Amino acid sequence: MGVLDLFVVALMPVLKVLLVTAVGSLLAMERVNLLGRDAKQHVNNLVFYIFSPSLIASKLADTITLSSLVTLWFMPVNILLTFIIGSALAWVLIKLTRTPRHLQSLVIGCCAAGNLGNLLLIILPAVCTETNSPFGDSSTCSTYGEAYASLSMAIGAVYIWCYVYPLMRISAEKRAEETDPKDSTASLNADEVISGGLPEIITEPLLASEDSPSPMDCISQEDEICQTRFEGKTKILCLKKIRQHITTITEHIDIKKLFAPSTIAVIIGFIIGVASPIRKLIIGDDAPLRVIYNATDLLGEAAIPCITLIIGANLLRGLKRSTVSPVVIIGVITIRYIALPLIGIGVVKAAHHFGMVGSDALYQFTLMLQFALPPAMNVGTITQLLEAGENECSIIMLWTYAVASLSLTLWSTFFMWIVT
């Protein structure tokens, strides 16, 4: 199969996404105003609480079984690697560009979390149904493609709400504390203490006591006992600092948000798909409770078009001025569309070489594609929930998704050429 044919196969699903995204941007324009701020918020809530969980639960229950989980065990590891490598590269970008503190968690989220949900559910079936598809029979390819996309979407949702959300929540709360008027009151009280003298509470001398010797005293006196006591106190202080950091992270983890509707849908979908007796009751033409699955599947079908329309509406906000540096945007694009895909090829090829991934071309294509996707739209949902960084997120999404139209097509073509 020629490279031009592969390019056409890869281009069709990307164009489909672009057309629906353009409709979302059109509906969000002030002249039309069908997807204004309030309408978009309502649609976003419907997607978050109903459509997306229904899609995840129905797809998982229908396509994932215990045997398929055993076969696809490397996919959760592969997705975890995309998060770890993306976060590491984002940390390097933050240090090189000196990204402001309030944008650091957003940059990490955009580099770590790819759009593992609706894009794969659009791209994989569309690639399978093309007449020149290199993945064989269209019906068999579509069945496997939906299974791969469903598991990818489920695992991605769990990782996002267990890792990206707490990270961005900590950053949002720190920024709120920095801009809190109470801080200014506290600083005024501190000035009064300085100008008016020390408060009565401070009664101990400021010099170090005999129980707390300094390292210089230890060196000058060459007292081994003193040195041992000092090192012991240093270790205790280090342990206290580590404990404080762990406590800070655990305090900022919102258990309710970790068990977001999508996460609960993942659990329900896995239970139905893996437990054979429950599966026979709900899934299948002869299942007595098939109406539950049919209703859930019907609600889930609304998720992809709604999410894609919201993407278009959010991208329109990115045209407004923002505090994000162009260097940071270029860095995010470089990480997501150059560094991660190249690393992804090495990871999948190494996994195949060591027998962790089979010879299924569609499966290898899916694993590689997970490294080349644009940032997850759930990152934008998180900024809206936290009411922090919405404009900055919009402009990052604008440029990354604009470049994704070309990048996804080229990488999809190259991945198909490699695996077939």
From TrEMBL:
GO terms for molecular function: transmembrane transporter activity. GO terms for biological process: auxin-activated signaling pathway; endoplasmic reticulum to cytosol auxin transport. It is found in: Endoplasmic reticulum membrane. The chain crosses the membrane at residues 6-30, 73-94, 106-127, 147-165, 258-278, 298-316, 328-347, 367-386, 398-419. One of its GO terms (cellular component) is membrane. Keywords: Auxin signaling pathway, Endoplasmic reticulum, Membrane, Transmembrane, Transmembrane helix, Transport. It is a multi-pass membrane protein. InterPro entries: Mem_transp_PIN-like, PILS1/3/4/5/7. Belongs to the auxin efflux carrier (TC 2.A.69.2) family. Involved in cellular auxin homeostasis by regulating auxin metabolism. Regulates intracellular auxin accumulation at the endoplasmic reticulum and thus auxin availability for nuclear auxin signaling. This is Auxin efflux carrier family protein. It comes from Eucalyptus grandis (Flooded gum).
